[in-house]
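=== Per-residue structure ===
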Amino acid sequence: MPNAVNPVSIFLPVLVVVALTFIAFIRMAAARGAVAKDQDPNFYRAHIGAPEPETAVVAVRHYGNLFELPTLFYAACISAFVLQAVGEWTLRFAWTYVAARIVQSAIHLTYNNPAHRGLAFVVGMVGVIALWVNLALVICARL
């Protein structure tokens, strides 16, 4: 049975996470720019010395987080497209991850409650795991 969805639609959630990464970069650059004049320039050579203020540290950590779990998300989405395995469930799992990642980012960059942020992370992780299980089932079915 052919997919009922346009396989290219898998790249819409990818584009949202890419946009979120660009926004996080701008936020990080702004946070670092705001504190750089008061920061020892030697700190930026090896990150040794007095640490940056929390606002900059949070923005830097947030940006770095977008190069961790999202790599598995990107790989799953691209694999699903290449294998012509983009179906309704694939998209649901991808969008679940994206929604959770947006919530996690919003929490991280505003009131930063670790329990709330952690819950959003777990929901996103479940979305990525489901995405990969779905993809693994497709791959195994074709062997």
In short: The chain is about 75% helix and 0% strand.
